[in-house]
Amino acid sequence: GAGVSQSPSNKVTEKGKDVELRCDPISGHTALYWYRQSLGQGLEFLIYFQGNSAPDKSGLPSDRFSAERTGGSVSTLTIQRTQQEDSAVYLCASSLEVAGGPYNEQFFGPGTRLTVL
Amino acid sequence: LAKTTQPISMDSYEGQEVNITCSHNNIATNDYITWYQQFPSQGPRFIIQGYKTKVTNEVASLFIPADRKSSTLSLPRVSLSDTAVYYCLVGDMYSGTYKYIFGTGTRLKVLA
Fold first, then answer.
1. Which residues from chain A sit within 8 angstroms of residue B89, using beta carbons?
2. Which of A30, A33, B27, B52 is the most buried (most CB within 10 A)?
3. Which residue among B46, B49, B87 places its CB closest to the CB of A42?
4. pLDDT of A69-91, one tens digit each?
5. Phi-psi region of A84 (alpha: psi -120 to 50; beta: other; left: phi over 0)
């Protein structure tokens, strides 16, 4: 079956511009996660959705970052007024259920590489 | 908040068994421990998951002591294609919501 897809695969933007990153999770997965991975670094958790709801947005790096999920499916991560430090690979994952039990295996997409000039 | 720690890197030779340990204090009571493998320019890929004691699948084993403050991923008879970064992942329940804490990652290099 289809895995998690993300678009665009690469995005180059100028400092100060807004960008939208899209994630299409695996059909039927109720939980969706966003992570950021800077060059050569580990994965930084940003936010998760249970259905269309994000219980905790405190992992977002600043108020320039926002995320939404609609219809229990597609999610968009928006970065306003991009800065050079926002350059990273943004990874999306989905799972059958949110963490806790044995059904929280996260399936990752290929990521969107964002470069802010 | 949970903090996970792993060795930064390890070298091994083909055919050897490799053990990578992750320490994870404050793991959420009901949460499972999951290990992922990541190749360059790809998203992480699931390897194995467990809650307590020992779990084995076709590619790895996972050892978790009773206190669950650490876990050890065991890769039997590694090959060159196992060269990758390995991460442990735990969930941390804080104020009723989860945060997902990836370990710092262990860069495994398998030598011929």
1. 106
2. A33
3. B87
4. 999 899 999 999 999 999 999 99
5. alpha
